[in-house]
Amino acid sequence: MDDTGIATDVAKVAAGSFSAGGGFFALRWIVGVITRWSERRAARLDAQEERADREWQQIREEIKQQLADALKRVGTVERQNLALRRAFNHVAGALLRIEPKHTALAEADHLLAASFPVDFDLAMARAEAALDQAQSAPATGDER
Q1: Is 93 within 8 Å of 125 (Cβ atoms)?
Q2: How many helices (H) and strands (E) does the chain have?
Q3: Angle at the Cα of 130 (from 124 to 134), degrees rounded to 5?
Q4: Contact in structure between 129 and 100 (CB atoms under 8 Å)
C-alpha cells in the first residue's frame, strides 16, 4: 500500500468535509438573509395594510356622518316644503273664492304642476271654488 495514497485520501476527505461544512454554512447564511428580508417585507406590508384599514375606516365613518347629515337636511326640507305647500293652498283657496281667474293663481298652478306633478290639491280647490261660484251665482236664464 502506498502511504501517500492514504494521506491523499485523508486530505481529500478532510477537504471535502471542510468544503461541505463551508457550503452548509454559506447555504445557512443565504437562507437566513432571505428569511430576514421576507420577514421585514411582511412586516412592512402588514403595517401598510393596517394603515390602509384605518384610513378606510375613517373614510367610512365620514361617509356615514355625511349621509346622516344629508338625511337630516332632506327631512327638514321636506317638512318645510310641506308647510309651504299647505300654506300656499290655504292662501290660494281664499284667493280662488274671491277672484278665481287671477293671473297669479295660473302662474302658481303652473309652478306647482312643474314641481309637484301629482299634487292635485290646488286643482281640487279650484274646482270646488268654481263649483261653489256656479252654485251661488244668480240664475239668469228663463226658467219656465
Answers
A1: yes
A2: 3, 0
A3: 145
A4: yes
Q: Return the closest-CA partner of residue 93 out of 135, 55, 124, 67.
A: 124
CA atoms within 13 A on the CB side of 52: 6
Rounded distance between C-alpha atoms, residue 51 and residue 31, angstroms: 30
Q: If we measure between CA atoms, which residue out of 110, 112, 113, 105 comes closest to residue 130?
A: 105
Write out the chain's pLDDT in tens, 144 residues. Answer: 455 666 676 666 666 666 666 667 777 888 888 999 999 999 999 999 999 999 999 999 999 999 999 999 999 998 988 888 888 878 878 887 888 788 887 788 778 777 766 656 666 777 777 777 777 766 555 444
